[in-house]
Amino acid sequence: MSSMHDSASLASGIDFAHLAARIRQWGKELGFSAVGIADTDLTAAEAGLTAWLAAGMHGEMDYMARHGTLRARPAELVPGTLRVISVRMDYLPASARDPQAVLADPQCGYVSRYALGRDYHKVLRSRLQRLARLIAQEAGRFSYRVFTDSAPVMEVELARKAGLGWRGKHTLLLSRNGGSWFFLGEIFTDLPLPVDPPTTDHCGSCRACMEVCPTGAIVAPYVVDARRCISYLTIEHKGAIPEALRPRMGNRIYGCDDCQLTCPWNRFATPSRDADFQVRNGLDGAALTSLFAWSAAEFETRLAGSAIRRIGHERWLRNIAVALGNAPMTPAVVSALRSRAHDPSPLVREHVVWALRRHGL
Length: 361
Fold this sequence. Notes:
- This protein has helices spanning 16-29, 43-54, 62-67, 74-77, 99-103, 120-139, 155-161, 208-212, 230-236, 258-261, 288-292, 296-302, 312-326, 331-339, 346-358, and strands spanning 34-38, 83-90, 110-111, 144-147, 166-167, 173-174, 182-189, 218-220, 223-224, 252-254.
- It is of the alpha+beta class.
- The protein has a domain at 16-92 and 113-189.
- It has a four-stranded antiparallel β-sheet with strand order 1-2-7-4, with helices on both faces. Strands 3-10 form a two-stranded parallel ribbon.
- The termini are far apart.
- It comes from Thiobacter aerophilum.
- Catalyzes the conversion of epoxyqueuosine (oQ) to queuosine (Q), which is a hypermodified base found in the wobble positions of tRNA(Asp), tRNA(Asn), tRNA(His) and tRNA(Tyr).
């Protein structure tokens, strides 16, 4: 996230409609697949956010409750904000192994497609900063702040308002020409740019995402209980994974894409050929036993520049132990689990014991 630049009087006579068109063009040149502009009024979304937090569905993500309604009030988060420039960047790696094939192979670890390459925070932030500099060259100094999933920002709602898509029943943004395999980023600005109209909802009566969720985390259309979500459990959750949910996690060791894989709109997704998002370390289908053997130093070295690194080695091993417990019992699986039966971490040991018990050992 960038720091807020000092406000300065805008040069008179700016054609903001022309500037908005230029921003879209620059965005495309920087690799964004879509650019839209929204105002800051999120009143309609605030009630839903408040109810979701009150129900405790954010789990251990205390930062969500801590910021509360600030998420729904961009002009309070960044005083002076008049508009939000919202961008979309496709990330589905073109060369990755077929995700369904990986999920169907319990000997392999499934890593959410967004995390197979370079950390998207760095990629988007860098390009949003470049976009802001281009705007400054055209409009003179202006106030702005860049966000990429890095602060209390209702990214999906802002992108919806900016016309980039509609909110699916799994709560992700959906686009008719891009599905949902993309990242979102924002520039909060004091430029009074013309806003884009939102698009209409095209989910209809489809419930595919709700029905496919392994843990039943999509408890109602447009409502996800994070406490049951595999993405939350493998990434945000710091402690022991609830035992009742472990068998349902299968071989998913970092995130979960099931709701996206089943969505009919993802037939129209555009694979990314951006080098930053291509597969690193063979994580599009690596053997669980080999990943479980990584030392803490190997974890840090191999995953430098990856979003996965932030969960740390301990949670990485916790997640893989669960997957090994769900895998067919083979000498290699049993040997891998027993190799960490005396791991220094009580969290890892607990999940190893559970996994061995699953295999009757």
